[in-house]
Amino acid sequence: MTKKKELRIGLIGCGFMGRTHSNGYLRVGNFFPELTYQPVLKAVCSRTENKAQAFAGQWGYQSVETDWKSMIARDDIDAIDICTPNDKHAEIAIAAAAAGKMILCEKPLARTLDESRGMVDAIEKAGVANTVWYNYRRIPAVTLAKQIIDSGKLGRIFHYRANFLQDWTINANLPQGGEGLWRMDADVAGSGVVGDLLSHCIDTAIWLNGSIKNVSGMTETFVKERMHQLTGKVEKVNIDDACAFMCRFNNGSLGLFESTRYARGHKALYTFEINGENASIRWDLHDLNRLEYFDNADASTLRGWRSIHVTDGDQPYMDKWWVPGLGIGYEHSFVHQVADFLRSLETGTPCSPTFREALETQQVCQAVLDSAASGTWKNTNA
Amino acid sequence: MTKKKELRIGLIGCGFMGRTHSNGYLRVGNFFPELTYQPVLKAVCSRTENKAQAFAGQWGYQSVETDWKSMIARDDIDAIDICTPNDKHAEIAIAAAAAGKMILCEKPLARTLDESRGMVDAIEKAGVANTVWYNYRRIPAVTLAKQIIDSGKLGRIFHYRANFLQDWTINANLPQGGEGLWRMDADVAGSGVVGDLLSHCIDTAIWLNGSIKNVSGMTETFVKERMHQLTGKVEKVNIDDACAFMCRFNNGSLGLFESTRYARGHKALYTFEINGENASIRWDLHDLNRLEYFDNADASTLRGWRSIHVTDGDQPYMDKWWVPGLGIGYEHSFVHQVADFLRSLETGTPCSPTFREALETQQVCQAVLDSAASGTWKNTNA
Amino acid sequence: MTKKKELRIGLIGCGFMGRTHSNGYLRVGNFFPELTYQPVLKAVCSRTENKAQAFAGQWGYQSVETDWKSMIARDDIDAIDICTPNDKHAEIAIAAAAAGKMILCEKPLARTLDESRGMVDAIEKAGVANTVWYNYRRIPAVTLAKQIIDSGKLGRIFHYRANFLQDWTINANLPQGGEGLWRMDADVAGSGVVGDLLSHCIDTAIWLNGSIKNVSGMTETFVKERMHQLTGKVEKVNIDDACAFMCRFNNGSLGLFESTRYARGHKALYTFEINGENASIRWDLHDLNRLEYFDNADASTLRGWRSIHVTDGDQPYMDKWWVPGLGIGYEHSFVHQVADFLRSLETGTPCSPTFREALETQQVCQAVLDSAASGTWKNTNA
Amino acid sequence: MTKKKELRIGLIGCGFMGRTHSNGYLRVGNFFPELTYQPVLKAVCSRTENKAQAFAGQWGYQSVETDWKSMIARDDIDAIDICTPNDKHAEIAIAAAAAGKMILCEKPLARTLDESRGMVDAIEKAGVANTVWYNYRRIPAVTLAKQIIDSGKLGRIFHYRANFLQDWTINANLPQGGEGLWRMDADVAGSGVVGDLLSHCIDTAIWLNGSIKNVSGMTETFVKERMHQLTGKVEKVNIDDACAFMCRFNNGSLGLFESTRYARGHKALYTFEINGENASIRWDLHDLNRLEYFDNADASTLRGWRSIHVTDGDQPYMDKWWVPGLGIGYEHSFVHQVADFLRSLETGTPCSPTFREALETQQVCQAVLDSAASGTWKNTNA
């Protein structure tokens, strides 16, 4: 067996996303043995040393850092993986780019469009390999949707709709901010469901259906005040608990998006549907191995939505896993993204979505928030 | 408008089935205006005059009888509809045939195979038009299944499986026998779920997949004793509460059937599935307007079970009702059977299933019960 | 049996809705025998005499009219049922009210808010019994949703979302206007999917979740020109093919609505979902006998959306039909509305939705169209 | 961090199951960090050295063997994992036990009941830790089913039914025997779907519902002859392509099982349902993160099957993975079994199913095959 090239990873942040990415690095070699590159878990960084040590032990990182600047300064690290809360993304990415590191950044790119622009400028100036972890593109059923659309089977597109519904913040006694809850602190997260959930929906939508021209949005904060974990005081909640928006795509189709953390009964219901002249597609994260597909070319009395169990070897990524009928899970989307990033290093083709591509999602997010604030339609300038 | 020919109906029995049939007679003219014949509700018969009067008032019968023999003796009645408990089917049918009446008989044909044979002999000797109310054949999705199979799309058939699951008799305090509960009295009903529920499954199966060669059955009576409504005493329960059987069809396929009144959570779950070399079909009474269909000829990455909402004008019977997407209900199967019976009078083609055809279902039922009693396989002699 | 009071019906228009209403009048006595009133099909009116005669023959109307004014002038008619295209609703309703007739009017009330106001004024001045056929309220699963909400089980409401998706006008060769296609002619229909489909969603929403305060809408006409059946010329299409809107309800919850005739694969997918603090509900017309219900009070490891098959005798209207597990269809909602209208005559309580209540739906529709035209939020003034 | 104790694994066989087990060993430390033991991939054995080398490279085994006897003879291996075709299970297990190795054996235990008995005797005499890879028990939804049943919520059990349906051998041109196809060679596999698929259903059933008393089975071989890969000749097919059986459990409930490789449209549809007096449960491998649950104690108008998305931290194993709503896949069941095996080494409690427990499944399999051959009911003697 030929020796693999090492891709030495420095992971910053060891929360939920630190785990999903680490799992991706560890699994990719087992399931994508043909790849030239092999990730090596060189170091993990957390401000709390105990936490970094525990994480390193559990996941096999060779060393720990407590200051991300030290991590970036290390010669034995090729790629920086940014898994911090959103407020650190820009600073770290810009410094890492300046240090010539490859960058894999959790979504959303940053808290604001302005921060994001600075990151893209820095990355492109540095010319380093980069990708943003909009992982849902690489769930096989979603990738299959992309292939179907690219094949032209849908014809002219009329409608795109997507939801991302959760219910975990309904309890008014849930505090905001701090450990485990930074997503509820606007200073850290930048926004609420817009950056956290709608950004996923927008990334997928642009990928599948092209750019969004303009939007009209609405946001709401249902629980106005919550105890802040860091200050111990009841403070105003500044994030959006829920957001819906209508939009027009450049291809003339209409879009409708909604996200909330107040949809009782939905833990993480990410669904999308796209209606074309000749065929339609829909997908649901709660049943992630399936794609539903309606083809108007089927004989008229026998037409119906097809429930495609995307577990066959000729379906995207599925030749790497088990046998037909045996599903995979959420985490595999990250394994696939690692694989595609490694392959991009071989081929020199960027690993989508790049920072540049993810910037467009930020433009839409910003336009949605601006529209909600002003009550008027906003162009995305995308 | 041409004047219609009258088909003067005499209905015997005014329970649940009396209602579904009456509704069929009343509705058929509105939805099948092209038919030459129009049912006229001439008389309804019940041993209890008050009950007959109330029923006649509610459904528009012109007169009442309290003795079915008087009904049969009337000159102004063309067709006798038998909706009594099973123990009266044979006697009434044989007498009605002798009187030259057309006969529409509720299923199962009778309590036993022997009784059924006598009925078929009488009917065929009399040469009168006849049909048995195995209504599920005429749910549009089921009729579509028949059309798909007849078109040859399934290829060689390997498997047939059907369930009819209910849960209404689980409570051990439910009495047996008498008003509303004759289905639990073996003397009246002949059997439990075999005649009541499995007979439906068997009728559909034979229609769709041909004759059944031999069977191996199992029955159980979970609650051994119940208070009898007529005697007021706790008595042994003689019906089968549950029955399963395996079988081989003449075409070489395997069958698996199950019925019970002890499947908590299922009110009336009648499902069937048929697997062929090239395609498969399944249906579920709880969602009766849909047919699921899998076609192996679909492109390999896009194959999946199709959920066909059988509400389009080019699907069976559906040009008679509303517009695509708007479902119909259980009762419509009876309207369809009335329509097909009336049409059979125009064309002279028998209205399936005839008594002769329903006899085959009785043969299978008997073989199942015999097999369960003996613990051995039994030929159906069909 | 006590003799029933007659409610002598004069039906104007004999298209699709003329059929559903007639069926309602004919069936109600069989299934709601306790009612004091019995509809009598006195006359049907169509400008084309042949058509009226054929309809009368098929449905049992005693006479025909070709001028609706003659119908209104008749002494032997108690109630006028308006099933014409939308452009005649106002004129007929106002005249009928002036003549002291009860009025049952197809939805939407009229083409515009202004027309609708005139109708309500006339009706209320006349003080006649009235109702508008927003039939979906009376599908048992939908009525059950109302009961659950009224019981307080949902707690504070956060979200309401509804879709009404069809696909029948995608073909650009489909002509507009005239026989069978007046819904595509803005002069006759007033609007496209807003009045035809969204009005249903809005009526249900207001009934379940209270008044809508303000809206932001978007409309689109995908096929800009079609041949007009009446002129034979290719003309501009003036209806909205698709419409989405966001809104805020008076109770603080957010709403999201969408309707289109360009959602390939959906024949008549009317769905709604309502998310409350403690429980959620959703419903889908394609599977109309079911209600899905999530109750957060269920034990945490055993919580899940419940699929309620609304066919039990203790569920709304279902004591009138068959036995548990056996579903009913679309048409039954009209039978229920007839029954409720007849009962309202007994009790003197109005049969909801009255013209006054339906006016609020018109206010929302108008605000949506105005918002779509202006690109700004609009108050409904409801 | 405390240093972990090593459990040095020797894997015999590197096909599909070699992969799933290896993945289990590699993942367990990341997700179950609290365990004292850590698997170490010491050696993998295949008769073909190239294959062993490639597998070792891909999965990180430290060394390779080409003779399983050499593997068993090694001092640096604690546990033998048997992933060979079925015909080697007995010989290897008996030798490994004699050598004092722990044993993890793929299912079914062996080709025949006799072989299995010999294995159990040897294992128990040696007193070594052991387990059999009936992995489906450890899919969280299935484990939750076990917890619900053990809690007594179902009450008296009436029915158990299970299916395992595939369609991959329908093509008559598919050869039998040899590489990748040993499951179709009765000499190697022992049986067809009985050992391969029904054994899973039986293991789960016994675990959930207790011992099976007697059975009546039916088997079929639809394609009678196939080209044998090893001989190059068309030979008689000796496996069962399909098998159904009825049974009685010791607790008085009825069972119905079916398995086939000829159910067009089903890749790996493993479903089971259990109906109790008070509640029912069902599960489907194609949607493996869900459990359906019906509780008759729910309010009568609000009762329905609950669709439980088993992804919450208080549900079995799910505190180890991601966040609510994010599903896991098929392979995780093996990670869980590894974790439970490691824990059993800490606690001294056997890791179910042990060889002894798996023997009972063999008894049922044998009785089914014997019954199918004789056409009579057979006791399982379990």
UniProtKB/TrEMBL annotation, chains A, B, C, D:
<dbReference type="InterPro" id="IPR055170">
    <property type="entry name" value="GFO_IDH_MocA-like_dom"/>
</dbReference>
<dbReference type="GO" id="GO:0016491">
    <property type="term" value="F:oxidoreductase activity"/>
</dbReference>
<keyword id="KW-0560">Oxidoreductase</keyword>
<dbReference type="Pfam" id="PF22725">
    <property type="entry name" value="GFO_IDH_MocA_C3"/>
</dbReference>
<dbReference type="GO" id="GO:0000166">
    <property type="term" value="F:nucleotide binding"/>
</dbReference>
<feature type="domain" description="GFO/IDH/MocA-like oxidoreductase">
    <location>
        <begin position="144"/>
        <end position="282"/>
    </location>
</feature>
<protein>
    <submittedName>
        <fullName>Putative dehydrogenase</fullName>
    </submittedName>
</protein>
<dbReference type="InterPro" id="IPR036291">
    <property type="entry name" value="NAD(P)-bd_dom_sf"/>
</dbReference>
<dbReference type="Pfam" id="PF01408">
    <property type="entry name" value="GFO_IDH_MocA"/>
</dbReference>
<feature type="domain" description="Gfo/Idh/MocA-like oxidoreductase N-terminal">
    <location>
        <begin position="7"/>
        <end position="132"/>
    </location>
</feature>
<dbReference type="InterPro" id="IPR000683">
    <property type="entry name" value="Gfo/Idh/MocA-like_OxRdtase_N"/>
</dbReference>
<dbReference type="InterPro" id="IPR050463">
    <property type="entry name" value="Gfo/Idh/MocA_oxidrdct_glycsds"/>
</dbReference>
